[in-house]
Write a structure and sequence with these properties.
Length: 91
Amino acid sequence: MPDLRSASTFVLDQPANPQLASSNPAYGSFTFAKPSPEQVLLTGPSATGQLVITRFDSVARVVAGTFEFTAHEASGGATVRVTEGRFDCTF
């Protein structure tokens, strides 16, 4: 997530290029590592979702929230739907 500073909701609907690193808009990614070669599926204008930051604590350095999204493979092959995702991370 670029420029995360507080609890809020982010829509995952912009084109993404993982090679751009921090200059990307917010996006979701799902990777199938096996069987080889790995498949990377991304959100974008036709595969959307949302990320809800429910806790952002800059003192304790903790971020937590939920997410859900649909992601497509760049070649147009596979699609995956991720629901009821949850995370708690330190930074």
